[in-house]
């Protein structure tokens, strides 16, 4: 099972560079990297693998699987591998315990003599793999675990060390028969269909449908891909490759593209080759044919694995290109060569050439299983109740076509011609049977390609009728279909409520008892107090302004959420992370009708108790002096620009303020303890220095020499001078109200505009289609001295300079002490030289720490982008150039803020002392800033990224 999607995709991209010997790589370096790539791929699939192991003979890769141990030798040379290297691997296998299997992976394959020598020799204990096996593993077309099982079975049962990938996956089963099976629609019409008798039980998750160049149906079964002629009732295997999934595509040159596992393969001339990687989830790759002749693969994505993306297939593994989609999808199809229509399961969404949302069309009740396009304006969807719905994108209307008495999933749909479709499902009455229906949509395509508008049907009778589509016998005697539909306007669509039993009717009309209302109110109060401490202050400010009336407080936020869901929001509008949490408690009060949370309707006592809990938590925070109680003072305080590193006040929560108050009290206690020790030690060393001066004046040193006098005074005078400096600095800080003394006044910060409320955002919403923000040029400026974010609309996090200044002070005292010891003590010359070298090292280290203390690393995350101030200079990352931002661990276990942006190679791969952003070649990303050095908690940094970065930030749970 694929466990590390990010590493897998990175290895696929890196494989293309290895094939081309990119970036000046030598063949020897490629071979060494190939060993590591194999081990990383096996690790990504959950196997324990290590590369470049040295023991009795050097081993390229070792790994274990299913209780067996494998040692792998890899060769990437210009020619085929002969007998010698294989015999060497066999000797290494003999040196191990019984049960160890050798694997020889040669990219260019093996000579005929080498294969014959292994097969006809002694006991077979070596498997031979070539480039086709490796690319099958790398792409996920045959995951490593399955490949080693298949190769081991072939070696064990047939005595073949080398078996081509085509033979490993070829099935040998009989051809299923085709029988006519009429399937009635859910309306009054009748569909003539054909049922394919699958051999054994067919896994519904893997079935799919496609069309060949002649329009025949291509059905994907567990045993392979079957071509079916529904008129002649004939079938034949066109790609006998077991384990394929979903639909297939016939190319112009007569080849057949198919999906299997995580990859995409090509069948041509009785030979199988792997051409691309696919979806991150197993058996979830879906092929899409573009009108321009290119082929794409849809990775529908999932919340816990990877985002949805489109993959443009190349000619071999590693040539594919990924384009991330703005939302998770269930089905997709190309409208034109640049525009795409997708479904998120409930609605149809039209995407532009930049894969941004252009429009959203609601679908009838039901989930969308599949969709296909008839032309640039018409889309047909298959719902989970196995009904067909025709959409006219230009007229912005939809019309039901009919439904089938077959079950789904799988539920598959594909266009055959401009007026006919193939629909696939499972036969309800016959286990293991797949039903394929050819549907002719007659009379739907006038000359201009538009669907004629019809008057709205009347609502209120037993059902509203639409004129049935005329039944016309299609060419070549194909099965015809009379489609009759029932149309219900969206406004009149209501959920069907089950009838209430007679004995329960009276109980349903009874109002809840007093105890039940009190229990609900107490539950709401408890959950309201818990929710209040997690709300940001800008949300609580609105709650206070609404006098804790839930409906008035949440209405603008609910409208804001509705604009985002409907696709009407302007670019940059994001959903606050606290709003879905509130919607889980308050349901329709916080969530718009399109969201699942809106199905929850809390009781009135619960809402009253929830509001009381919010009020009680707020009043407790006011009594604790965490927030100002006056509304005007609160509004000014929330909008106060930052005066020190941290989150803006508007983004803080009551829980943050409580934690900060506890930390402040604890810090104040330790500061007074440290202050007392500092003053006591200063007094102690001061008295000792006075005594040392008295002894020097009276000449009581034993022996009374100048060296002893200097050393004795230095031992007390130097620490006293350092402690006295710290004591004076601390006294000035204490008189300054706890702040460090400033040498010059700081210019006041300008005020900024108030944070826009949802009403203001709604007023500024544009009705024009959304477009991507302008991308910056390739030669963009990496450095920006002035602040890139508006005042007050950014969060700042900085490294603590106090620790560096402490190190500087201690090092300075040591340097002075060593400078006194070297000329005044009578020690060997070698020892003095070593002490001098150590002192020189301290000087260099002190200079570096002083540089970091004067210019500590500072990270600012704001409305316009991310800005980093480091000792090596300021750096600027506007949101327009950032595709994704994550917090992740890098080498050495240090946690960094990593960004995927345009032209990351402009940054250096290594940084000098003091840090700064650096390029990560393996990730094709930039390590923007180390988080370990910042004096901030990671969840506060994550909150700032989520607030200002929106969808650009990916939390660890979604990465």
From TrEMBL:
**Superkingdom in the source lineage:** Bacteria
InterPro entries (UniProt xref) = Restrct_endonuc-II-like, Restrct_endonuc_IV_Mrr
Please give the residue ranges the record annotates as the region Disordered.
447-474, 495-522, 738-787
| Transmembrane residue ranges | 672-697, 709-729, 803-822, 834-853
Indicate whether Nuclease appears among the record's keywords.
yes
Q: Which Pfam families match?
A: Mrr_cat
* GO MF: endonuclease activity
The residue ranges of the Restriction endonuclease type IV Mrr domain are: 30-134
Which terms are listed as keywords in the entry?
A: Endonuclease, Hydrolase, Membrane, Nuclease, Transmembrane, Transmembrane helix
Basic and acidic residues compositional bias, start-end: 773-787
The identity of this protein, by name, is Restriction endonuclease
